[in-house]
Write a structure and sequence with these properties.
The complex is a heterodimer of chains A (391) and B (153). Chain A is mainly α. Helices cover 70% and strands 1% of the residues of chain A. Chain A has one domain. A two-stranded antiparallel ribbon of chain A has the order 1-2. The C terminus of chain A is likely disordered. Chain B is mostly helical. Helix content of chain B is 50%, strand content 0%. Chain B has 9 helices and no strands. The longest helix of chain B has 22 residues. The chains are: A mainly alpha (391), B mainly alpha (153). Chains A and B meet through helix 5 and helix 7 of A and helix 1 and helix 2 of B.
């Protein structure tokens, strides 16, 4: 982790980092949401039928992670009972207050509606076939209508399409906004760049696509069904393309910084060579970006056997997650390690059993999977395989 | 036409749920937002009254000068003329109200002086700074300097 403690001169309020690992989780989790949703939208809007097996899985993944997305912030701020006030008296000059509305819009208007419309047929069926307590749950979810005639479904399809079309810019907004929050901190040279929202957006897509792919592979393994290789190949193709764009953008930012070499450059450069060497150069760039790009790229050029492909995809997916997490870490933590005077550096001490410690972060990272598991039970996304069309 | 409507009828409860959500939100807002919010700006105007009833802890140097005019005069001629009495002596409203009830602590120099004058890269270069070990070998600052008129004649 490089040298620790304070080196050179820090202003008194810079010695201790205020934005902890929880603030690393926040863009990481929202990124997964936006990425998963964009993958789902691909199928819907652009009619990429190959990725259909992951369509609903991606929607539920997005929902599971979206529900957890505000929790790291709540835990960090420490006063959940006050957080609703942000909605009551929002100030337009507060980027975070506006984020509350972006979040709510995305959750309520986009994700829940789209899932509801897509699952309505099953919900109506389950409301008749499921056992006692659950039957009531499904009955409430039908909102009182049992009309699943082909025409009603066509209307759902059409409305769902419109919502997806609204949903894509919303998903872009959701995560672009997270980047905006960092990018607009003009006092911080590490963050303050208009490229930040764009970089965040593309890295979000990368992580979301990789996450859905891994969840799909894991779920197939658990359910002991064959992985649809055409689907997997297509997802990985997208992952590769988006990753290339993402990497180019990040390199563009880097080259721009190196060339511009403004007054912050020596300080940031020193930091990247010392305190951020392991997490930025090794983990983020070499392990988490270049390696998966090589693995994915090789598959675009050569034709490997199925087993090898699966192994390469799984490895690429896992490394991608490591890389994107490292990227969030380097943005959030890295941005606080150097002094605004550019004369010194501090270090971040990650604790375990504290409110903002590693323990809490692990729990927060497991929570979406628990929610996803419950969602998969409530709204199984794989029905179509068992009961093909004509319901 | 009517059958078209019938097939879209299941969307009506959905719209109602959304509208109900908005209505509940507006209702909550109505109830929860403090009445005086926004009267003067983006805050609760009544907060000013809450703040006003809190006890005053600083008296302000004009008040000190009413009784300690000697010190005030001394100070106004020296380099500390811009430093308020309570910046060094701490909040003394209680003392100013009733000097007999609360007698200010006697101040030691060194720690106090170093808080402002110890050399530090973060301080602007024009501000007088010393490295105490080099400047006075760590001796009590008050053994040479007068706090109210600190420069050496």
């Amino acid at each position: 982790m490089g040298p620790t403690g304070v080196e050179g001169f820090m202003y008194p309020n810079e010695v201790e980092l205020q934005w902890s690992i929880l603030i690393v989780l926040y863009p990481f989790i929202t990124g997964l949401v936006a990425g998963a949703f964009i993958l789902a939208s691909l199928e819907r809007v652009f009619n990429v039928s190959a990725v259909k097996p992951t369509y609903r899985l991606a929607l539920l993944t997005a929902l599971a992670f979206l529900l957890v997305a505000p929790l790291p912030l709540q835990l960090h701020l420490g006063h959940p009972e006050r957080s609703y006030e942000m909605y009551l008296t929002p100030h337009t000059s507060s980027a975070m207050a506006m984020f509350g509305f972006v979040y709510l819009w995305y959750l309520m208007v986009v994700l829940l509606l789209e899932i509801w419309l897509d699952y309505r047929v099953e919900i109506v069926e389950f409301s008749q076939t499921a056992r006692a307590p659950w039957r009531w749950v499904y009955r409430i979810l039908t909102l009182g209508s049992r009309n699943i005639s082909p025409r009603a479904r066509r209307i759902d399809e059409r409305v769902g399409y419109v919502i997806t079309v609204i949903g894509i810019p919303s998903a872009f907004l959701l995560h672009g906004y997270v980047g905006f929050i960092f990018g607009s901190v003009k006092a911080n040279a590490w963050w303050s760049t208009p490229l930040m929202p764009v970089v965040f957006l593309f890295s979000a897509m990368v992580s979301g696509i990789a996450a859905v792919m891994l969840i799909y592979m894991a779920a197939s393994k658990v359910r002991k069904v064959a992985i649809d290789m055409r689907c997997l190949d297509t997802i990985c193709q997208y992952l590769f393309y988006v990753f290339v764009i993402d990497f180019s953008l990040e390199m563009l930012d880097l080259i721009h910084r190196v060339y511009e070499a403004d007054e912050s450059f020596r300080s940031l450069d020193f930091m990247v060579h010392t305190r951020l060497w392991a997490s930025q150069v090794v983990l983020q760039i070499l392990v988490g970006t270049v390696t998966p790009l090589v693995l994915l790229g090789a598959n675009q050029v050569f034709k490997f056997r199925e087993g090898a492909r699966k192994a390469m995809y799984a490895a690429a997916g896992c490394l991608t997650m490591v890389g994107i997490f490292a990227m969030r870490w380097n943005v959030v933590i890295g941005g606080q390690l150097f002094s605004k005077s550019y004369l010194g550096y501090t270090s971040y001490k990650l604790q375990f059993a504290t409110r903002e410690g590693l323990g809490a972060s692990i729990v927060l990272m497991l929570l979406p999977f628990a929610i996803l598991w419950a969602l998969l039970k409530l709204l199984p996304p794989w029905l179509e395989e068992k009961e093909p069309a004509g319901i | 036409m009517s059958s078209r409507l019938k097939d879209a009828a299941h969307l009506i409860p959905l719209v109602l749920v959304v509208l109900a959500g908005v209505a509940v939100f507006l209702l909550f807002r109505q109830v929860l937002v403090p009445k005086t919010f926004g009267q003067y700006g983006h805050y609760r105007a009544a907060a000013l009254d809450d703040i006003r009833v809190r006890p005053v802890s600083f008296a302000g140097q004009a008040t000190c000068a009413m009784c300690h005019d000697e010190v005030a005069t001394t100070r106004s001629k020296g380099k500390h003329r811009g430093v308020s009495c309570e910046a060094c002596h701490g909040p003394l409203a209680k003392h100013a109200d009733d000097p007999a009830a609360m007698k200010p602590k006697k101040l030691a120099g060194t720690g106090l002086c170093q808080g402002c004058h110890k050399a530090d890269k973060a301080k602007p270069a024009y501000f007088p700074q010393v490295v105490p070990a080099e400047h006075s070998g760590g001796a009590e600052c008050l053994s040479c300097h007068q706090p109210h008129s600190p420069q050496m004649q």
